[in-house]
Amino acid sequence: MENTSTVESAKQKLNDWLDKGIIVSGNKLPSERELEELLGVKRMTLRQALLHLEGESKIFRKDRRGWFVALPRFNYNPSSATSFKQAAIEQGRLPSWGYLSKERVHAAAPNILALLGVKEGDALYKICGWGALDNHKVFYHETFINAQVAPDFIEQLGEGSFAEAWETIYSKKTHTKHLEFKPTRFSGSACKGIGGTPGTPSIRVKKYRADEADKIVQIDIEYWRFESVEFFIDL
Amino acid sequence: MENTSTVESAKQKLNDWLDKGIIVSGNKLPSERELEELLGVKRMTLRQALLHLEGESKIFRKDRRGWFVALPRFNYNPSSATSFKQAAIEQGRLPSWGYLSKERVHAAAPNILALLGVKEGDALYKICGWGALDNHKVFYHETFINAQVAPDFIEQLGEGSFAEAWETIYSKKTHTKHLEFKPTRFSGSACKGIGGTPGTPSIRVKKYRADEADKIVQIDIEYWRFESVEFFIDL
DNA sequence: GAGTGGTCTAGACCACTTT
DNA sequence: AAGTGGTCTAGACCACTCG
């Protein structure tokens, strides 16, 4: 009669409730203590079920804030000229973003300096920020820019997007030259910046952007929430 | 004196032992029961530590077989003409692969048929297999091929690689036309094919390969072990 | 301040792998 | 047959969030 009270059965019930839209009022799931009662499993077991559903992109976590019904995946073409903002709108999503820090620095990882063609000790810009869809943060980024190529970039950027700044202020059309995808887990600044749970899988996307002369002018390192995105590239 | 006996401390100790190469004889870690004693933590706690280290690519699991010291990440360019075999050798790794099934089928997902230009009810080939580095399986794949474009592909393939078959037998040079990266978790056939633990994060790579006339002749769906790979693309 | 998520303990049983 | 990994129970404490 009663089911086997295992992770699998808990998952199925939760899945049902999610599909049917019941129980899950608004967007937040009931607390774990309520759920363990509703599902007839213990806390650690429930946790497994929730973690599995997280992996299947049905739900997601905000650190210390609980579990939420997942939003659709974002279809992202990192090589496209289309900005995050525009792509989001095209997919019927509400984009937003913020900057956590904008610094003029004189040091960075050696390979960053080399790629940007910045001499040891010379200035470059480091900008950290996040991007969100429907008010849910989906990526954190660190961006490096050659200060010689784009003087006063920080001031010019304001609250606008990178693409806008490049085109409007420096009249440069940039294109993606190189891409890297590395499966990792959230930790450190990416974790804080996005409000992610440490240890949760994530994808690090590294992007070199170049100008018309094929000179690398910007390096982006983005950390995406594992379940919130899907990448595609046309060649 | 004794540390706080938390996940973090267990991780640090394990990390130490891994770095120094002690405790870890051969390639397999001691059993979980031994480790809980050595580290002074309980099983579920140890498990958290191990899972974290798995996420950081220091160790990996074989289903029901235990924990192993991780191998280096494979640097994989999915758009390159270079075959898996060749790329592996260039990175000083020992590649191997196997086929789990080779079928002539008359049905597949509608979008697969459409992309390959196979009419409803017509034949296509479905080939499932795996790839390994240093005798550790790192990906599982399902490949679909238009039977009209490459008659008798299954027979011609033998135990060789796809690239070899296309070039030698059909004298076609193929190139990657489209790529998709989707973070998922292991389940179903991919899980079995690779000996992965269900629920473990993985990356699904979808690849359309086309001939000189830009006609799609092959669709690859690969499921990669999360921690064993890093992708890059030059544009 | 109550409630909640994150973490941890100290056991247990089963299915599978290995010896 | 013994050992091991996978799973589950029934508690507990702490740090943080939220009302």
TrEMBL record, chains A, B:
<dbReference type="GO" id="GO:0045892">
    <property type="term" value="P:negative regulation of DNA-templated transcription"/>
</dbReference>
<dbReference type="GO" id="GO:0003677">
    <property type="term" value="F:DNA binding"/>
</dbReference>
<dbReference type="InterPro" id="IPR000524">
    <property type="entry name" value="Tscrpt_reg_HTH_GntR"/>
</dbReference>
<dbReference type="InterPro" id="IPR036388">
    <property type="entry name" value="WH-like_DNA-bd_sf"/>
</dbReference>
<keyword id="KW-0238">DNA-binding</keyword>
<dbReference type="Pfam" id="PF00392">
    <property type="entry name" value="GntR"/>
</dbReference>
<protein>
    <submittedName>
        <fullName>GntR family transcriptional regulator</fullName>
    </submittedName>
</protein>
<feature type="domain" description="HTH gntR-type">
    <location>
        <begin position="4"/>
        <end position="72"/>
    </location>
</feature>
<dbReference type="Pfam" id="PF07702">
    <property type="entry name" value="UTRA"/>
</dbReference>
<dbReference type="InterPro" id="IPR028978">
    <property type="entry name" value="Chorismate_lyase_/UTRA_dom_sf"/>
</dbReference>
<dbReference type="InterPro" id="IPR011663">
    <property type="entry name" value="UTRA"/>
</dbReference>
<dbReference type="InterPro" id="IPR036390">
    <property type="entry name" value="WH_DNA-bd_sf"/>
</dbReference>
<dbReference type="InterPro" id="IPR050679">
    <property type="entry name" value="Bact_HTH_transcr_reg"/>
</dbReference>
<keyword id="KW-0804">Transcription</keyword>
<keyword id="KW-0805">Transcription regulation</keyword>
<dbReference type="GO" id="GO:0003700">
    <property type="term" value="F:DNA-binding transcription factor activity"/>
</dbReference>
